[in-house]
Structure formats: C-alpha cells, structure tokens
Design brief:
Radius of gyration: 23 Å
Shape: globular
Structural class: mainly alpha
Largest sheet: none
Number of strands: 0
Oligomer: single chain
Helix content: over 70%
Number of domains: 2
Length: about 375
C-alpha cells in the first residue's frame, strides 16, 4: 500500500498535463497514451515475470509507464508551461474545488453495484460474468476519445459546426464497434474463458448501454463547453448551482442513485426466488441499459434548447449499412473460419482473421458510399505523407 501511494502524485500530474494539452494540442494526448501502454507491457514483463516482484513489480511498471507519458506530455505542452505562476488563478481554483469534487461522486462510487451484487447473492460468479462482458464492450467507449477535443474547442468559442462534424466522426467509429461487440460476443467470451461463452446476451445489453453512454457523455461535453459562467473571476455560488457545471454532474449522480436503487430491489427479489446467477446478471445489465436511455433523451433535449444541432441521419444510415454488411459476412463465414478450440493458438488466429475481414468490409463499403469517409482517409494519408 505504501509503494502504491507513489502513483497518486504521478497520476495527478498526468491528468493535469492531459488537461493542458487538450486545450493546446489535443492529439498529443494520444501520443502520451501510446507511450504509457508501450512502456507498461515491457516494464511489467521485466519486473513481474523475470524479476518476480509480484504486485510491487506491477506498481513499479505502472509508475514507469506514467513517467514516460508525463515526459511526452511535458514536451508537447512546454510552451504552455512557460507562463508565470498565477496565485490569483490558484486561489480561484481552490474556491471552486468543491465543483469537481461533486462531479466525481459518481466515479468514486462506481464499484457500488459490484459490492451490492456480492453482498446480496453472496457470490462472485455473477460479478466475473459481468466484468468479463464489460471488458469486451469497453472498446465502444474508446470511440468517445474522438470527442475529447470538443470541450476545449467550444470553450475557445469554436464554431458549432465542429459539433456536427465531431458527432459524425463519433458515429463512424461507435456504430461498427457496437456491431463488433454484438456479433463477436460469443467468440470474444470464448477467447477469455470458454465457461463465459453462454453470456452473449449480457455483452449485447452492455454494448447498447455503453453506446448510449458514449453519446450521452458527448452531449454533456457540448453542454459544458457552451457554459460561460466560469469565465467570470468571481462567480457567485448561486450562479454556479444554476449553471450547467452543476446540472450535468447532478444528472449523473441522479442516474447513478436510480440505477443502484433499481438494482438492489431487483437483485433482492430475484435472489429470494432462487433465480440462476446468469439470469440475475442479465437483469443487472438490462437495468444499466434501461436507466441510461432516459438520460440520453434528456441530454439531447437540453442540447436542442441551447444550440441548433441536427443529427447527420444520412451518414449514420451509411455507417449502419456498413455494419450490417460486415455482420452478414460474419454469419456467412464465421463457421468456416473461426475454430472454437480450447487451444488459444488454434482459436485466436482464426478470430483475428474473421475480425480483420469484417473491419475490411466496413472500411471498404463506407469508403465507397460516404464522402466524409473518403475525406477522413485522405486526411489520414496526408498526415502520414507530410511528416
């Protein structure tokens, strides 16, 4: 525990530098993330596997990865770090520190559902099914990284056109990732452990929940980005409470509270009737999905009240068509390509091949039918060739 405490300051510095670069060069945060992941694996291999340091080795490997990430972020943010230390700004931050603390209440209590399930059922089997399913659908959440620069853009009074363009890009990645999570649910579960292969319905429910969560979070970013109250040096407490800076975390806390109450009641009733754990976990995933939907709708209504923002229906339909196309290809080819064998050396290559085929189908179809996709490919190619 004492050794793990060294991660606290480096995590804080890393998050601070990430925030600085988001408002300066948002793409450089991806470089930092690549450095973090690239260092963590070899450091972990050396410290845990070869030096046999166990948990301490894992902590030290994470520390090394964070330090590498910090070096990258400091390099790209060096021009912003040259300004003099402003005591007035620090004093204002301390004055408003209650707001980010309030905003993070939901994150702090994010493990309550796991604890609740374990206490009611007195088992961790269901938790393992839920956790494994969550790890599969987490790829959908990565699509939200597309929107990481939206908030600072809006703070800098960027054009509202950025919103529609960003939302289109978000859908380009989120929709196929949703499709991949669904059609590859059984193979992915089998790859992690064959005993989880019958939990596909849980993955599907959580996939839709994560998809809606990503959209909701993006809408929240838009609302926070157009809020102007924090521009004032001496913002009043009453004004802050009425602002979106307080409203958005309040909605998150209400959603979390509603989710926990519904989950507790449902699990208590199901457990009293002796329902199988897999069915209880399915209800768990269903509740998380059902609770997410009304907050997505309300977030959309709030955005429409503040700015004129139309959904890029034509583009979304094209991305759905591409996703449906690779889903059809999957169902036609998966039985002959994917080999469900216990040996990971037999199973994993066939799974990767099938995944590559489906991704290729999506990229090809969207490139052919969508102008924005062709522009995206061209800009990526230009970015590589201009270096």
């Amino acid at each position: 525990m004492i050794l793990a405490s060294v991660l606290l300051p480096v995590t804080f510095v890393s998050q601070t530098l990430t925030g600085i670069n988001l408002g300066h060069k948002p793409h450089t945060n991806s470089y930092g993330l690549v450095a973090f992941e690239s260092l963590k694996i070899p450091a972990g291999l050396a410290l845990v596997y070869f030096l046999h340091l166990g948990v301490n080795g894992a902590i030290l490997a994470t520390l090394v990865a964070y330090l590498g990430k910090i070096v990258i972020l400091v390099y790209f943010g060096r021009t912003q770090l040259k300004d003099k230390f402003n005591v007035t700004v620090l004093r204002n931050w301390l004055k408003l520190s209650w707001l980010p603390l309030y905003s993070n209440l939901g994150h702090v209590a994010s493990v309550v559902d796991v604890i609740l399930y374990s206490l009611i059922t007195k088992s961790v089997i269901g938790v393992s099914h839920y956790s494994v399913s969550t790890s599969i659908v987490s790829m959908i959440a990565n699509a939200g990284l597309i929107s990481q620069a939206l908030y600072p853009k809006l703070l800098a009074k960027g054009s509202f056109e950025h919103i529609k363009e960003n939302f289109t890009r978000l859908m380009y990645f989120a929709i196929p990732l949703l499709g991949i999570s669904i059609v590859f649910s059984k193979p992915a579960l089998f790859a992690l452990n064959p005993v989880y292969a019958n939990a596909s319905i849980i993955v599907i429910l959580l996939a839709f929940r994560t998809f809606f969560y990503v959209i909701t979070s993006t809408l929240y970013q838009i609302l926070l980005g157009i809020e102007q109250i924090d521009i004032e040096q001496n913002s009043k407490y009453s004004s802050l409470v009425k602002s979106k800076l307080f409203l958005i975390p309040t909605l998150g806390n209400i959603q979390f509270g509603l989710y926990i109450v519904m989950l507790a009641i449902t699990l208590f009733v199901l457990n009293s009737y002796g329902v199988l754990e897999l069915e209880m976990v399915t209800w768990w995933a269903a509740i998380s999905l059902v609770v997410q939907i009304p907050f997505l709708v309300y977030a959309w209504i709030l955005v429409q009240k503040n700015i004129k923002f139309s959904i890029p229906i034509k583009n979304i339909l094209k991305y759905v068509a591409g996703t449906l196309a690779f889903s059809v290809v999957f169902f036609l080819t998966s039985k002959s390509i994917i080999s469900f064998k216990i040996s990971i050396y037999d199973f994993l290559p066939s799974l990767i091949l099938e995944l590559a085929i489906c991704i290729g189908v999506y990229l090809l179809i969207t490139y052919m039918i969508d102008k924005k996709t062709r522009m995206l490919f061209k800009s990526i190619l230009t970015g590589f060739t201009s270096r």
